Amino acid sequence: MRILTMTLAFLLALSAHADEHLFYQPHNSDAALSDSEWQTLWRSTVEHGVETLIVQWTRHGDDDFGGSDGWLAVTLRAAQREGLGLILGLRHDPEYYNILPDDQRFASYWYQQSSHGLAQHEALGEWGLDVEGWYMPLELDDYLFENPATRRELETQLRSLASRLDRPLHISAFTGGILSPDVYARWLGELADAGIQVWWQDGHGTQALPLPVREAYAEALDCRIGIVREAFVQISEPDAPFQAIPGEPAQVPACHPSAVFSLRYRPWADMLRSNSSDSALSAAAPARQAAKLK
Fold this sequence. Notes:
- Helix content is 40%, strand content 18%.
- With 294 residues, it is of the alpha/beta class.
- The strands form 3 sheets. Strands 1-2-4-6-7-8-9-12 form an 8-stranded parallel barrel, surrounded by 4 helices.
- The longest helix is centred in the middle third of the chain and has 22 residues, at 103-124.
């Protein structure tokens, strides 16, 4: 009986994650959805247990999705009316992985991106949204940040950026298996010590690393590090344009904050998939491929 009770408690702890935090990566093709379709989508999202939407970006290069009067701002206000909390992404630089890695250029480049992020933070004040946090869309990995000096510079600049924001700063990371699990976990832990909410992408969808390797990295992480559970299955080859189909996300130990990537792959969001091509559906996978190919 005691074993059965412990097993049930463990299963309940896992299932309690649900989708809790759910990433949404805006595409301009999403503007084709009607107001009623968005309302249905957001209501279904809440009904499936999602509490907070992490919006990957609100500006992509020069594209701000219409600004405070654009379709993205309108639908995020609708999401908030349905009860969803919002963590808003700042500006994403589509040239990020083409410019880096360059250790000598890193400090000035990241300072520039932080400045762009602060400018977008100010612009988002006109969107009329109640924000729980801010997300820096430039993802971290142990290829670009293999150099300890670059990691130290990153921490310094993230501390500076976080100090100028009115809500907590979030950022995500993945691994290419370059740093050891212990060194990698220590790095993310140091960012958490700096007050940054770090999210680790579990690699379940891309499967770029074998399962035992991914498990070793997950087990090394401090419980403060959130785990992003990939809800897709990559069907494209590593050197081809990214394509994926919906998949079931893996479970994670209950001590970690949990998020799912992404809304577009969830069963109730097929209307989003029908309005966009697969070639740009993942935040993490194209970045991983770029890092792997360099």
